[in-house]
C-alpha cells in the first residue's frame, strides 16, 4: 500500500470517529474546557506511528520532515513535541500545534471507552471533565453501559492496524511514534519521485 493510500485510509478513519464523537458529545453535552491542554501534558502518552502518518506526510509535503526528525532525535523530554503550552511555568492551558493532524489517542481520549475486566464499557476521560461536568459524566457513564453508542478504543485501534499491521501494531512513547512516522515517509520517498500532483507548500 502506498503512503498516500495509507494516509487517506487513516484520515477516513478519523472522519468516521469525528462523526461518532460529535453525536456522542451532542447527546451527553460533555466537552473539553476551552483552552485546556492538560491531557497533552502527561509525560507518558503512548501511540502508534501509523496514527501520525498523515502528520508526517504533511511535513514531507511542506519540506519540514528532515528538520523535525532531527529535533525529535535530539529531544530528551517525553512531553509530546506538538504540545504548545501557553505558559512555560505549567498550568493546564495550552494546545496542540498540529490539531488537524493529531493522533488517534488524542482524538479518542475524553470521548472514547474501554472495556473493564468484566466487559463493561468505561469512559476514558480526564479528572477535569469527571469533576467539572459531574452530572453529565455520570449520566453518560450509565448510558454507555445500556444503549448509548460510544467510540471504543480497541475497535478503533483494530481498524487502524488493518490499514497497516506493522505500523499500527507498534505502541511506543508518543515522540517515538512521531519520529517513526517521519522515518517511514522519508524512507518510502528516498527512491521514489515526489507524489504526483502534490506541490511543496509552506
Ligand atoms: S499530538 Fe497534539 S493532541 Fe496529541 S498529545 Fe500531542 S499535543 Fe496533544
Automatic annotation (TrEMBL):
Its recorded name reads YkgJ family cysteine cluster protein
Highest taxon of the lineage: Bacteria
Q: Which taxonomic lineage is given here?
A: Bacteria, Pseudomonadati, Bacteroidota, Flavobacteriia, Flavobacteriales
InterPro entries cross-referenced by the UniProt entry: Puta_zinc/iron-chelating_dom
Amino acid at each position: 500500500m502506498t503512503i498516500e493510500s495509507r494516509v487517506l485510509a487513516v484520515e477516513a478513519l478519523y472522519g468516521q470517529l469525528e462523526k461518532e464523537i460529535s453525536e456522542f458529545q451532542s447527546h451527553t453535552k460533555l466537552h473539553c474546557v476551552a483552552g485546556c491542554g492538560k491531557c497533552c501534558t502527561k509525560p507518558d502518552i503512548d501511540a502508534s506511528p501509523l496514527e501520525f502518518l498523515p502528520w508526517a506526510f504533511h511535513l514531507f509535503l511542506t519540506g519540514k520532515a528532515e528538520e523535525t526528525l532531527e529535533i525529535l532525535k535530539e529531544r530528551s523530554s517525553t512531553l509530546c513535541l506538538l504540545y504548545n503550552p501557553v505558559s512555560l511555568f505549567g498550568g493546564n492551558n495550552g494546545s496542540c500545534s498540529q490539531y488537524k493532524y493529531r493522533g488517534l489517542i488524542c482524538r479518542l481520549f475524553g470521548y472514547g471507552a474501554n472495556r473493564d475486566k468484566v466487559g463493561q464499557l468505561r469512559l476514558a476521560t480526564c479528572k477535569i471533565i469527571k469533576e467539572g461536568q459531574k452530572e453529565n459524566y455520570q449520566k453518560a457513564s450509565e448510558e454507555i453501559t445500556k444503549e448509548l453508542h460510544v467510540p471504543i478504543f480497541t475497535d478503533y485501534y483494530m481498524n487502524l492496524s488493518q490499514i497497516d499491521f506493522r505500523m499500527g501494531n507498534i505502541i511506543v512513547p508518543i515522540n517515538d511514534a512521531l519520529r517513526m512516522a517521519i522515518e517511514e515517509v522519508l524512507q518510502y520517498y528516498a527512491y521514489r519521485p515526489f507524489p504526483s500532483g502534490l506541490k511543496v507548500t509552506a
